[in-house]
Design brief:
Elements (H helix, E strand, L loop, with lengths): L1 E2 L8 H11 L4 E5 L5 E2 L4 E2 L11 H7 L1 H6 L3 H10 L5 H7 L4 E7 L2 E8 L1
Parallel strand pairs: 1-2
Antiparallel strand pairs: 2-6, 3-4, 5-6
Length: 116
């Protein structure tokens, strides 16, 4: 069982393969990269920017997390390295033969659940 973990793992393919290998049944939930609110930064559309545009300024002043936590540039850089949101096609590639449910909010894909 994995709930909002795979987007933090550096080698997502290895993580998914290990889940498939050891788990007779699996459950993997992850936020959708196509939802307009990025759940880690709590910012609108910031995760859709090209990676080089997501600067410390944008993180610090244009996201709820940045306004509340006041991160430094090193923290912003570390988060950029750590978080890699997935789409449904990514999950289909990582978990072949598994079921994928799209959880929606106001008709938009909020998150995905993979199960077998």
């Amino acid at each position: 069982m994995s709930n909002s973990v795979i987007e933090h793992v550096p080698d997502q393919a290895k993580f998914a393969a290990e889940m498939m290998r050891v788990g007779r049944k699996i459950y993997c939930q992850t936020p959708s990269k196509w939802f307009p609110v990025e759940p880690h930064y709590v910012g609108l559309f910031v995760h859709w920017l090209p990676e080089r545009w997501f600067t410390h300024f944008i993180h610090r002043y244009l996201t709820i997390e940045g306004i509340i936590m006041k991160p430094d540039a090193a923290t912003t850089a570390a988060l950029k390295e750590e978080i890699h949101l997935l789409g449904k096609a990514d999950l289909q590639r990582l978990f072949p033969g598994c079921n994928i449910k799209t959880e929606r909010f106001l008709g938009l894909p909020k998150s995905y659940v993979v199960w077998r």
